[in-house]
Sequence to fold (534 residues):
Amino acid sequence: MIYFDKVSKKYSNDSIALQDINFSIAHNEFVSIVGHSGAGKTTLLKLLLAEEQPTEGSVFFESVNVHALHRNDVTKLRRRIGMIFQDFRLLPDKTVYENIAFAMEAAGRSDDEIAFDVPHVLELVDLSHKAWDFPGHLSGGEKQRVAIARAIVNQPDIIIADEPTGNLDPVNTYEIVQILKKVNDIGTTVILTTHNKGIIDLLGRRVITMEGGKIIRDDESGKYVL
Amino acid sequence: MFWLNTKRIMRAGFLSFWRNGFVSLSSILVVTVTLFTIIALIFTNVILEGVLADFKTKVDVNVYFITTAQETDILQMKSTLEKQAEVASVTYVSRDQAIAEFKEKHKDDYLTLQALNEIGDNPLGARLNIIAKDPSQYEGIAKKIEDQGTLISGGTKIIDKINFNQNKDIIDRLSKIIAGTKQFGYTFALVLVCTSLLITFNTIRLIIYMTREEISVMRLVGASSMYVRGPFVVGGMIYGIVSALFAMLLFYPITLWLSSTTRDFFGGVNLYTYYIENFFQILIIILVVGMLLGAISSFLAVRKYLKV
Fold:
């Protein structure tokens, strides 16, 4: 499904974010990418989203070179990817309902579909009672659940979670991970970046370990080893 | 799909405007100042045109005829002059009217009146009072009158004097003042409007700068450029509409207060009357300018942050 082919990203001669990255991710996999801060995890995800261009190599999504796509096609690609950020990145002027609905509106879904799916997804993340609250009125855990709801509402092919529990306490961290597992169980590929040992050991799924912009380990049922 | 997206964009634009009260208010204030400046310039132009038109009527050319000039000849000259394109009006003052005006003007001057009585006969000739459409045309008119005066009377000169040359300096100076004032006025207006527009554009750009993170999130979630940009453009147009209404409302008490002052000061121009009589025309101009200003500023400001 996803294939990184000899990908490197250099910002300057002294700043090399990624070096010769090669790996693939199949449908329905749950992959954790671990590493210290500055290992290149976020850069990897930015390349997949076409937010940045690789210096060398290519990134393929379903056999299509992501960086050869026209701007409009990049927009369509992103609708097939649900993104969850460490800092939530909710739209502060929109309610919880509107934040989730925005993802569907951007994808061109009808009002009827939105009216049906959004409440459903809110129920999934246990936030039905907060539908008309603004992000400023939510706790960190609730914000992240809204972000997850926004990411999954369009039933994307893949969920990318970039350190989604970085700003959360252990209880909320556990809840978020459980939601991601549930999402993966219903058939969505999940890529999770983290430097939280507990999450990795809890998941017991494939772990790609990065350091200094390189992949140093790739274990099918890995543990956190750094 | 197009109408669905349009409806969603307009709704999002309005909600963003409504929910960001303080930010919206700041933008409205800045746009209001710009539109206020434009309306002020319109009114200033009205006053200026009024003053200049009034000045023009204060300057005229009088043609004095000899006492033996025939009224028919004088009226024929009047008729010829009125047909000239550069002449605004010609007024005939007969000998009787002239002496009556003279006596009225000097009614408190006993000595002058006594001297007049001793003369016995009316020493004053008839005259034509000529007002040109532009002060710069008086010289040409005076020249034609001199030529014409001889022709009409069959070679006998009936014109006693033309007081153009006496007023020539004033007329020349007035022409230069009028031309210079207009040029200065247009240049100043242009500079003021451009400055106001730049300030407004930068303010809106700053406001959109504050939302750059949200714009990038919208792009990463899969929204198209139009879908991201649209609500900002709608918001900009709303700023323009609200600001236009504010600016027009502000001028109601201002013109009311200034109306008596400007009428006495600038000879005949009543700003309040002008404001009321031209309310809808000015409102439409200001609404269009305001909406374009807000929309274009937002459109250009968002562009930079769409490159995600």
About this structure: The longest strand of chain B covers residues 87-93.
